[in-house]
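It is worth pausing here to work through a concrete case rather than discussing structure prediction in the abstract. The textbook approach is simple: state the sequence, then state the predicted structure, then interpret. We follow exactly that order.
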Amino acid sequence: MLLRRSQARACTAQRDWSGRRQADRAALSLWAGPVALEGVRDDLVVVERARLADLRRGILDDLATSLLDDPEADPDEAHDLALELMTGDPLDEAAAVLGMRSAQRLGRQAEALSIYSRIRRDLREELGIDPGRTLTELHQRVLAQAPPRGAPGALSAERPVARDVVLHPARVLPAPRTPTVGRLADLDAALGALSSGHRLVTVTGPAGVGKSRLLAEIGAALRPSEPDIYHVALEPHAQLSSDALALVVGSMSGLPMDGADPVHQLAEALANEQAVILVDEAEWALAGVAEIARALLDRCPGIRLVLTSRTPLGILGERLVVLDSLPVPAPGAAREEVCDSAAVQLVASRLADRGTERASDLEAWVDRDLQTLAEVARRLDGLPLALELAAGRSPGGNLDRLLDVVATPLDLVADELDREPRHQSLREAIGWSIERLTSKERRALARLSVFVATFARGAAVAVIASPEAEAELRALVRGNLVQAAHAGGQGLRLLTAVRDAAREVLLDLGEVADSRRRHREWYAARWRGAQLGDTLIEDVGRTQEDHLAALENALTVGDTGSAVDLGLALFRRWQFSESVATATPWMDQLSRMPGLTDAQAARLAIARTAISHVRQWEDVDVPLMVHALRDDPDWAVNLFTAEAIAAYTAGDTPRSMEMATLGLDAARASAPHHLPESLALAAVMAGIAGEAAAATEYVEEARARIGPHPSAVHLVTVVPKLALAMMDAGRPDVALDLLQRAADGAQSRFGIQPTTTTVINLGWAALGAGRPRQSFTWFVRGLHRETPWSPGFAEASAGLGCAGVALAWEHASTVLLASDRLLGTSATQLAGSLAAHVERARSQVTWPPDTPLTTLPVDVVAHRVLQLAAEYAAVLAPEPEQASA
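Step two, the predicted structure:
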């Protein structure tokens, strides 16, 4: 099914709707019966059954989408598929979007509006949330009677393009799932502190008081005016050192991190940025956060930080916003005072959110019921989380039951009797919420405690592993023990305090090992055998903490198969985000696991080569690796690509051309999703060989295959190679245009910065197009992305020297000589147009220059290059330059 789905997606970029549908239908034809693995015992296949069901739903979604995207296709079939998806999961917003789009295409506006009304009601009653932005915007289009997207005759501007995704989790801001009550003054205080020049604002207060919610409101308020906002939750990263924490922040934000002084590198990456960084639950790594905050505040004038923490950082310039419990009315308070109480308003609002007949407007309540709400608020000390949990345990808004629930809290253990009353309220609220669950619901919540971050409903069902898993999950969401939210898609999570309590229950049940096994099996299988694509990058990035927890568990218990699957999925994410320092120790540990098959060992060696840029095998090993991967064309092509790049870097042009040709042949034969990159690599080799016509032909085919709106993966893996080929073919102007469009598209569509390869290639393209000042700037940026001993740093140094010669920079020859040392140290040889640029630059200066750099250690040479580059970059005039003839 995965192979067929990969073939379908390879057709999408070229708008080959017929080919895409044929591949989707071929994948669906492999499915037989109402459920996967029917007749096999649940305890043996529950995770695999859930994964396959999730995969089938994804293919049905793909097929319906392709039918709607094709103006010539029949929308009736898409409508039938959408109805099947909606029937299978009434809370699936993506299915509702398909249902509304297909109904609109069929001219059934009333049906489209009915679908929206139904899912809006179900989401509020079951999950306590409103529909997400995509569904809401589609509803507005239907109301406005705008032409449906993809319909015959629709304007081309309305035709769909490749779906943009958020590829770095720190770019996804949390969205409060219900209205925030009683925090307007606190929100104004935080925003006022930022607007008055404070660059570090810490929202502090006890557990359950609403710090994370206020942080989300701050992000929502800043979004319209701030160019970049990052959000990082630290609870999954407890007690990390400042260096380890900087690597996490860099990886989640899409900033290249190679492990050399991560705090400094993070500050360097953000030095010229204008951004707000939201950090949630900083108390889990307070010392590391404090060190990083100092570095960013000292070196990054455009960076502002907003944190939540139970404990302030205590560093100079910190502005505190202290949250306390919501005000509660005094006993016997008048009606007006009760109605003005934020704590009472919160309970009433949450009861209304649950689809009860209770109104959120307190003026409509009778006095007796108002006094009951006031008593609930007082007994729970106005603590927001405790109030929400209480509302979730009141079926149908029954106030007598609500009062009964909070009247009998669990006893506290003796050593916690001296806690503040609001801490006791929180513990009691969680305790009685869990105690009042049915035994099956309690077991389900305990099993969910193995998740460490946001998780999908399919993953939850697999880990709960019960025939009634869906119903049990809905009950937990209704009770506010599991939180539902829109953050990069509909997701679920457990608050830290709830997770801790649920883990105690799991321990008592003796099910820790089994629950962790199902958890790791779900994530291990999720992307097993899948091709590299934007969806994989987005999903693994969003669930990286759970992937890592599953990988650590697999390594601990010696589950080699799951460990390798998890590691390779994470590798694809880390390679895309250039997270070298994060990836390297995990890949090294995996490669030493006992019991690796030849194919697993080959895949890991390829991954380690791609991450480290150091070949992990000898020439004699290549035939053995090819044989081991004979049934895996995806990784066989990866091997040929890695070999071609390694040979190219070492200056072995014949070998690089041979491997590129083998990779292209393999891609054409059995791995069509690799064709864009394989064609781009062949184009580079043809350009080096002076075959400009062949290079151009390969480039044009590759561009046709990635389409007018390339995926993020294609922007990173294909476009830089196409640009390099065009430079070697004598068209640096075309290369520069390709790269600039790629960099702009990556930022505007995906919110990502250009990769190091793109940055360095932009330097070469600008140099070839006669723009040395622009070229110098790109090369300086490239230097700061790489470690001093890496091939990328050496190449950027060579380009910097060439641009410096064109600018008559007095230190250009010194930098050129330094680049010789660096290229030799990293065993890198420049080829084609790049080598020509270097030779041309050398011919224009006195060579070799008189400099002691030839005898200094290589790290000193590298730092001297950085110093000289920074000094000259500071004095370069910023005015635009005209391309020279």
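Step three, interpretation. The longest helix spans residues 42-69. The two ends are 54 Å apart (CA to CA).
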